[in-house]
Amino acid sequence: MNKETLLIHYFEGTLTNEEKVLLFEKLENDAAFKAEFEFQKNVKAAIKLEERKNLKEKLIALENQRTPQRTKNLKVRWISIAASFVVFASVGYWILSLNSNDSLYEDYYETFPNVEAPTVRGSIANDIKSEAFYAYDSKNYEGALHLFSEILDKDKDDYALFYKGLALMELERFNDAVTVFESYQEKPNSAFNNYIKWYLALCYIKTNQTEKSKNLAHKLIKSENPFQNQARDLLRDLE
């Protein structure tokens, strides 16, 4: 292989392993080749330097032409960033609000006990009501939901509506629980009136309906009932 081809391959970066060995041997033993190599190397470096200089000048000229448009684009960009920040802040506030509501709900919610029927399965009172409450006490809320729904559809009993709503809350189906509780028609002196108000108020917290929760808390505060003090505390926390 002649010297020119070897040098060309070197500067093109296409040397084979054998050619690399040959190149290093010539650089070590051939002064003329080494001088040619250094010369070619300097030429390549000068060309690259000139190319960079020309490229830099072209970029500066291009940049000067684009400056007004760039300024406009930067302005638009910062407006976009500012708008994005507003959206982010709004979303962040919404997320924090949801987290706050979740925490508030956990502070006030307690699973309501079975106060209607015994839970001894297989006893004489082995009817649908007992089965429903057995499922409820066993934390089988899906089964309880099905059975209380069946009782409610058939007999329209208030306890079935109340515990159906509670089962939905335990299943974290809060929108469905709201629908059930809101369907309740208050009756004079019914114990369920205030109980349903309280648990509906908690559902409103989970469904991010704070004002509705406040309204129910106000109603519970006005008369003596098991949730009067809790409603007062809840209202304070919601304010």
Question: In brief, what are we looking at here?
Answer:
This protein has helices spanning 3-12, 17-29, 31-108, 128-137, 141-155, 158-170, 174-182, 192-206, 210-221, 228-238.
Task: Please provide a written account of the structure.
By secondary structure, the chain is mostly helical. Helix content is 78%, strand content 0%. The chain has helices at 3-12, 17-29, 31-108, 128-137, 141-155, 158-170, 174-182, 192-206, 210-221, 228-238. Helix 7 runs antiparallel to helix 8 and helix 9 (210-221) packs antiparallel against helix 10 (228-238). It is elongated, with a radius of gyration of 40 Å. The model is unreliable at 85-96 (pLDDT under 50).
CATH homologous superfamily identity of the largest domain: Tetratricopeptide repeat domain
Mean of residue pLDDT values:
81
Number of domains: 2
CATH top level class name of the largest domain: Mainly Alpha
Shape: elongated
Structural class by secondary-structure content: mainly alpha
Main sheet summary = none
Put simply, the count of helices is 10
The CATH topology of the largest domain is what?
Serine Threonine Protein Phosphatase 5, Tetratricopeptide repeat
Number of strands: 0
What portion of residues belong to β-strands? Answer: under 5%
Q: Rg, please?
A: 40 Å
Level-2 CATH architecture of the largest domain: Alpha Horseshoe
H/E series: HHHHHHHHHH
**Ends distance:** 90 Å
Transmembrane segments: 76-96
Protein name: Tetratricopeptide repeat-containing protein
Keywords: Membrane, Transmembrane, Transmembrane helix
Pfam families: TPR_6 (PF13174)
